[in-house]
Design brief:
By secondary structure, the protein is mainly α. Helix 1 runs antiparallel to helix 2.
């Protein structure tokens, strides 16, 4: 019985770690979209570069969440 509980706890911890990565990546993607929209409205090219950088950061965080969720302490 305690082995099943331990296994369930480990699964919960893994899911929580992945959740935190995906939440932060989602925020990076949302900010990236807003900055891309602001680039179109204002014509300031630096916003497009920042938007692209945030997109790459979001992709990296998703990759960590999928492959190594315990590697980055995000919570």
């Amino acid at each position: 019985m305690s082995e099943r509980a331990k296994h369930a706890e480990e699964e919960r911890e893994l899911a929580t770690a992945k959740y935190h990565h995906f939440e932060i990546a989602s925020a990076a993607f949302q900010i990236s979209i807003v900055l891309a929209s602001a680039t179109i409205i204002t014509g300031i090219a630096a916003l497009a570069w920042i938007s692209g950088l945030l997109t790459v950061v979001g992709i990296a965080i998703v990759a960590f969440g999928v492959l190594q969720p315990h590697l980055l302490p995000l919570h």
